[in-house]
Amino acid sequence: MSVRFQRLLIILFSLTLIAGALFLFLTNSKKNIVFFYTPTELIEAGATIDQQVRIGGFVKQNSIKKISTPKEHIVFIVTDNENDIHVEYNGILPDMFREKQGAVIEGVLVKKNKINASKVFAKHDENYMPASIQKQLKASDYWEKDYSLNNLSYEIIPKFSTTNLFDNKLLITNDDIKNKITLINFFASWCLPCKTEHPLLMDLKNNFPKLIILGINHKDKKEDAVKFLSANGNPYTFVGVDFDGMIGLEFGVFGLPETYLTNSFGDIIYKHTGPLSTGVIKKEIVPKL
């Protein structure tokens, strides 16, 4: 056997080992991939039964139930306003989990529209949600999706009264803005997508200095909110506080951030759920100013 032939055999053997190792790696990686879907995307994708999946949407109102037989577990529905996914879960739900709020579910698909969940995450709680899911949501542009009804019939601004975050002697009410075009933005320091949209609010402030931007700090700690605005800049004309969430309840807020645009007649003429984007501002907000 010549030296050249021996070298050829060694090269072929090495390539075979490398190919085998690569095949095993790709096979194992494929098994461990957890795909991310909205309810509609999951149904349309035709995901296979027993497949590990992640879905995101908001928890349907009046859908949460506790069942004690055969053993106590929780059932609820995640929806995107087009399709529903039924979820069964054994475990402790995160503090921010509630009906009409965003959620991310990880588990096994047991039926076309049913998941046995192994993990439940509150969509907007960056302190609870693992970094890997945050990255996947951003990569899939999930934060840009809005599953509420964006285009409203005109609605009257609900009654509210709130003190200023920085000076509780200052007060603002719905009467103070009923004759003014106002952008009302519900935000919190703990809200990851609020941080994503914050530079765009700063740009709005700079480009439209006469626009009233009313920030409503929702279910947050005062010291955290002050620290957030001090570090990132304050785009708001007035920062009101909604520590107990009652103002958000009056507006129908179901997940942060949420933004409302009012006209000079005291009507809400546009609503956006989720972080503002450059496209939304150019197409939906600027033309109405």
What secondary-structure arrangement, pairings included, does this model have?
Layout: H1 3-32, E1 35-37, H2 39-45, E2 52-59, E3 65-67, E4 73-79, E5 84-89, E6 102-111, E7 114-122, H3 131-139, E8 155-156, E9 161-163, E10 171-173, E11 182-187, H4 192-207, E12 212-218, H5 222-232, E13 238-242, H6 246-251, E14 258-262, E15 267-273, H7 278-285
Parallel strand pairs: 1-2, 5-7, 11-12, 12-13
Antiparallel strand pairs: 2-4, 2-6, 3-4, 4-5, 6-7, 8-15, 9-10, 11-14, 14-15
Plain-language structure description:
- The chain is α+β, with helices and mostly antiparallel strands and 289 residues long.
- It folds into two domains: 33-144, Nucleic acid-binding proteins (OB fold (Dihydrolipoamide Acetyltransferase, E2P)), CATH 2.40.50.140; 155-288, Glutaredoxin.
- It contains seven helices and 15 strands.
- It has helices spanning 3-32, 39-45, 131-139, 192-207, 222-232, 246-251, 278-285; strands spanning 35-37, 52-59, 65-67, 73-79, 84-89, 102-111, 114-122, 155-156, 161-163, 171-173, 182-187, 212-218, 238-242, 258-262, 267-273.
- Strands 8-15-14-11-12-13 form a six-stranded mixed β-sheet. The chain has a five-stranded mixed barrel with strand order 2-4-5-7-6.
- α5 links the parallel β12 and β13.
- The longest helix has 30 residues, at 3-32.
